[in-house]
Design brief:
heterodimer, A: eleven-stranded mixed β-sheet, B: alpha+beta, globular
Chain lengths: 284, 137
């Protein structure tokens, strides 16, 4: 647990009451048990079979009812669920923490497939704002275009849009990979902290504005760089990795990766060196 | 007044090739032209030639084509011990001393990924108790 200690050498800011305490102590510490059994699924998740398929018409269901029905079908062992008539409803397919093949035959509204951890989702239409927000793991493929804040705060997994996306794609991104087959709007990668964004088309103004870390690869023209976003040379590992990712995303087969621009943080605005005591760095 | 002499302690830690923070500039830092201030290089892309059989099985079981979310998992350290950060428990999982770690960061990262999957999927994971207490449906 963190302790609180008083700081005797007060700075001007501290003496004005802005910082009167300093937090010290350890983060919680767990030890890995090497004798853990081989298991690939979270405790309490459903054992589903990808070959067991069912259609679910959500025409007369609201989003809460539809999401509950998806959970119910997973509990019955269905591993492939096809959603018919989503009709642009908001918040469909959220909170799925299971392995699953989820197919939407149509378009989704706002906040579709948010906070998911594991499923492979295919959307044969368009998506509204904040698709796959807070996604933890899995793969989401959108066949057409996406709205603003695409992949906001994504923490892991692959998020693919074969068309173009709106503004602030990957805002506050904390991990994972966002791949865009078309163009992206302004403020792409705004305040991103880690993770990767690949854009095969053009991108709008203020690319990577105030980014803390992470990488953005752009295939087309860049409107302008945002504050603290800088160009970096492409390496062989970048090229190999992008090739692999585009194959996974089923787009850009003949795309010339060597001509892409790599954008990273200049680390002038944000620098965490002071938070990592030097003596702690030499552990391994 | 005469100046006091301060003793500097020598670190007993072994130097590992490519280790962060040991020298002012590691090979990786020289290559990317930036200082790495974290416990690991968050931008290090995985080398798929180093993938372990366990991870291959995990990817297959989940129906994915690559490491997916595990691409962001790396071997770091906590309390001067190698450790991997578990985002679900919001803490560092320390690697036991009896597990020998290779010198290469890519190999270490693959081991970290394997151990983290085993830990997260274990019935002993702290999230299990939370799920039992708060799960709604």
């Amino acid at each position: 647990m963190a302790n609180i200690k008083t700081n005797e050498n007060k700075t001007k800011a501290q003496s004005m009451g802005l910082h009167s305490e300093v937090l010290t102590g350890k983060t919680q510490q767990k030890f890995f048990n090497p004798d853990e059994a081989e298991n690939f699924y979270y405790w309490g998740t459903y054992d589903v079979d990808f070959n067991k398929r069912i259609d679910l018409d959500v025409n007369d269901l609201d989003c809460k009812e539809a999401n509950k029905k998806i959970d119910e079908l997973m509990s019955q062992g269905y591993g492939t669920i096809v959603i018919k008539n989503p009709q642009g409803k908001h918040s469909l397919g959220v909170g799925v923490l299971n392995k699953l093949n989820l197919i939407f035959e149509g378009s989704l509204g706002y906040f579709g497939v948010g906070s998911i951890d594991g499923p492979t989702v295919r959307i044969n239409g368009r998506v509204g704002w904040s698709c796959a927000e807070n996604m933890m793991a899995g793969k989401v493929v959108i066949e057409k275009n996406a709205g603003s804040c695409f992949g906001a705060a994504v923490r892991g997994g692959d998020l693919i849009c074969k068309g173009s996306v709106g503004a602030r794609t990957g805002i506050d991104q904390k991990g994972g990979t966002i791949i865009i087959g078309g163009d992206a709007g302004a403020f792409t990668g705004f305040m991103m902290q880690r993770g990767r964004i690949i854009i095969l088309g053009d991108v709008g103004i203020n690319l990577g504005d105030s980014m803390y870390d992470g990488i953005i690869y752009v295939g087309g023209k860049i409107g302008s760089f945002g504050s603290d976003a800088v160009e970096s040379p492409m390496t062989k590992s970048d090229v190999d990795w992008i090739k692999r990712k585009l194959k996974v995303a089923e787009i850009g087969e003949n795309f010339d990766i060597s001509k892409m621009t790599k954008v990273v943080s200049g680390k002038k605005l944000w620098n965490y060196d002071a938070l990592e005591p030097t003596e702690k760095k030499g552990a391994i | 007044m005469p100046k006091k002499k301060t003793k500097t302690k020598k670190s007993s830690n072994k130097t590992v090739k490519g280790q962060l923070g040991k020298k002012k500039e590691t090979a990786r830092e020289k290559m990317i032209g930036q200082t790495i201030g974290y416990r690991y290089d968050v931008n290090l892309l995985p080398d798929y030639s180093k993938i372990t059989p366990f991870l291959k099985k995990y990817i297959e079981a989940m129906g994915w084509d690559d490491l997916n979310w595990l691409e962001d998992v790396h071997m770091g350290y906590e309390d001067d011990r190698p450790a991997v950060f578990d985002r679900n428990a919001n803490g560092w999982v320390t690697i036991p001393k009896k597990i020998k770690l290779p010198n290469n960061q890519q190999d270490r990262d693959m081991i970290a990924r394997e151990l983290l999957v085993k830990f997260q999927m274990s019935p002993n994971h702290p999230l299990v108790d939370l799920k039992k207490a708060y799960r709604k449906f």
